[in-house]
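Section 5: illustrative case.
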């Protein structure tokens, strides 16, 4: 397993962290998923480049692109929706 820590954009709170954790876990490709909202990081271990690429795609689709990638208003809006869902499901 290859450990990695990704710096992501739009990560605001534990609701965001919950959504990210749930969606990445659903891939069944990653291990040791940890999301730190206070540091804007997502950490996990993967085995193949495909696994990493899939994780980055899921993050971007939820509104949490990797730092340095495009972050238009539509992506920021998607992150608010992902955050709200995470808050609801967390409780």
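Designed sequence:
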């Amino acid at each position: 397993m290859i450990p990695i820590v990704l710096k992501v954009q739009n990560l605001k709170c534990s609701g965001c962290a919950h959504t990210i954790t749930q969606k990445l876990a659903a891939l069944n490709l990653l291990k040791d998923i940890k999301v730190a909202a206070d540091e804007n990081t997502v950490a996990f271990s993967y085995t193949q480049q495909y696994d990493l690429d899939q994780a980055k795609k899921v993050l971007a689709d939820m509104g949490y692109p990797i730092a340095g990638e495009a972050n238009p208003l539509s992506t920021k809006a998607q992150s608010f929706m992902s955050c709200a869902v995470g808050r609801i499901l967390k409780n």
